[in-house]
Amino acid sequence: MKLRNLNQQGAQVVSGTYRITGRVAQFYEDGIAAIKLRLSASDGDLIAYAPTEGFDMPQNIEYLELVHVRGTRVAVNDAHIILVTKLRRSNRTEVDELACLHSLPKVLCPASSSFDLLIKAVRSLESPHLKQFLKRVLERRDRMETFLKAPASKNYHHAYPGGLLVHSLDVAKTVVGMIRLSEPQMPRLLQETAFVAGLLHDIGKTYTFDAQGRYTATSKLCGHDSFTLEACAYGLAYLDRHEPELAITLRHIWTCASPGARYGSPAAMTLARYVRDADGQSAMANNQRNAFNSRRASGFGRLGNNVYWLPGATQGGGRGHRAE
């Protein structure tokens, strides 16, 4: 490709805020040296080229850093690239004006369909404060990649790349479904708070796994639930100023007593039980599916030390009476 000869007639000027997820210096056919960038957001990627001469590239730009880019969109071989004319670090105002979770790079997530559901569900929240809370928790450079790429467990449920997101979203949706069946008159704000609680109930695993799904040194010293409040601290501080009762509600849901919990305060609201039960149900359902993956889908199946059973009637071979 010859950068100098690209036809820029009628090229569209574009600008926006993205995360840098790829960067490499290259020489092109016409001898021009340029930096090839992959600029990512929740709706996809842009490939951009910034010349190394006559261009003021900020120093020490890091992986996943937010930058504001201006350039021209040019068609090349049935695709489009951006020829960068200006690139700088994003400022606080630009970041605050982004749509919720815009800066999460879709390219990092192995579970793309769950990623799309996450973006859609979070943006459907009516509470602006819960959206701001989630921005402050999930759009952190030190957490986002692991949340999008790590498994939910190593040898148990959702033990595959992206499994943490799949499980977290499953729990959040199940919690809302349980509320609508059992307490349909619950105010929407509390239902949305329960959704957020379910979505982040395992956020502490971003400390005990790395982005490649390997256990960290921290995992040998502390349980993941010990880090839930720490991972959410920046967001909780925001809620303390704007919706203090929601902040306390989330803290209670994540820390109240339940079987095997490390904390002592008994559950004082049904939301805590919904999150606990949805978590267990999501894990068991995934394990049961895995126990029967490589054999007939009835009878007994085993996964680790756990035994599961599916009656043959579920395959249409049972003798039960037909429901009228």
List the helices and strands and how they pair.
Layout: E1 12-27, E2 33-41, E3 44-51, E4 66-76, E5 79-89, H1 92-96, H2 112-123, H3 128-138, H4 144-149, H5 163-182, H6 188-199, H7 205-208, H8 228-231, H9 233-242, H10 244-255, H11 270-291, E6 299-303, E7 306-310
Parallel strand pairs: 3-5
Antiparallel strand pairs: 1-2, 1-4, 2-3, 4-5, 6-7
Please characterize this protein's 3D structure.
- With 324 residues, the chain is of the alpha+beta class.
- It folds into 2 domains: 92 residues, OB fold (Dihydrolipoamide Acetyltransferase, E2P) (Beta Barrel), CATH 2.40.50.140; 203 residues.
- Helix content is 36%, strand content 20%.
- The protein has 11 helices and 7 strands.
- A 5-stranded mixed beta barrel has the order 1-2-3-5-4. Strands 6-7 form a two-stranded antiparallel ribbon.
- The C terminus is likely disordered.
Our count of helices gives 11
What is the strand arrangement across the widest sheet?
Answer: 1-2-3-5-4
N-to-C series of helices and strands: EEEEEHHHHHHHHHHHEE
Fraction of residues in helix: 25-40%
Distance between the termini: 69 Å
**Which structural class should the secondary elements be placed in?**
alpha+beta
Task: Characterize the main sheet.
Answer: 5 strands, mixed, barrel
Number of domains: 2
